[in-house]
Amino acid sequence: MDQDQKIQQFKQMADADPENELGHFSYAKALLEAGQHEEAIRPFFRAIELRPTMSKAYQLLGETYEAMGKRNEAVDTVTKGAKIADEQGDVMPRNTMATLLEKWEAPVPDFKATTAPAAPTSGSSAPGFSCSRCGRPDNQVPKPPFKGELGVKIADNVCIGCWQEWIPMGTKVINELGLALSSESGQQSYDQYMLEFLQLDGR
Ligand SMILES: [Zn+2]
């Protein structure tokens, strides 16, 4: 998918299901990646409004402000996001935001959790595993959930909890966009959403 197609498709999802934070978040992220900063702000806000604990949205909104030269807004947003991520145990976005604050020479808030909290049932994981979406070190998906490269990537990088969150979201994506998984383009779009949701891009 090229950048414009991606923007259009995520916009379509945000419009089709205005209560679904993933559509707004993905739409905003695609706009940010395309350098359309001004346009990205509203959908980021909408995603945060729908899910105030979505720490990654604060991080990217902060980066959007930074790109626009709005330092105060960037620092405020990322400080808030880092605290929320800390409370959620979202270690990766928290650390990324702490690094951003340091780079901007802004104070880094005191964090409560020094490491990711252990999940209630701690499944076995490969050494060094951390989930691409939530950063937790345990409950790795035990085997590829489906055949192919992407299935292996999920088993290598995603925890069971995040994978289970994706499943109903995937069904929504199919229904709302009317995707036919039997077609190549339908399958491609579906995979794109899954990568986006599980934050596997670049892994
Ligand atoms: Zn996870």
Would you write up a description of this structure?
The structure is a single chain. With 203 residues, the protein is mainly α. The chain has a domain of 83 residues: Fe(II) trafficking protein YggX (YggX-like), CATH 1.10.3880.10. Helix content is 62%, strand content 0%. The protein has nine helices and no strands. Helix 3 packs antiparallel against helix 4. The model has no long low-confidence stretch (mean pLDDT 89). The structure holds zinc ion. The site of zinc ion has 7 residues, from helix 8.
Tell me which ligands are bound: zinc ion
So, the CATH homologous superfamily of the domain at 121-203?
Answer: Fe(II) trafficking protein YggX
User: CATH first level of the domain at 121-203: which class?
Assistant: Mainly Alpha
Strand count, sense and closure of the main sheet?
Answer: none
CATH architecture of the domain at 121-203: Orthogonal Bundle
Number of helices: 9
Q: What's the helix-strand series?
A: HHHHHHHHH
Radius of gyration: 17 Å
**How would you sum up the global shape?**
globular
Percent strand equals under 5%
In short:
This protein is 62% helix and 0% strand.
Task: Record keyword descriptors for this entry.
203 residues; 0% strand; 62% helix; YggX-like
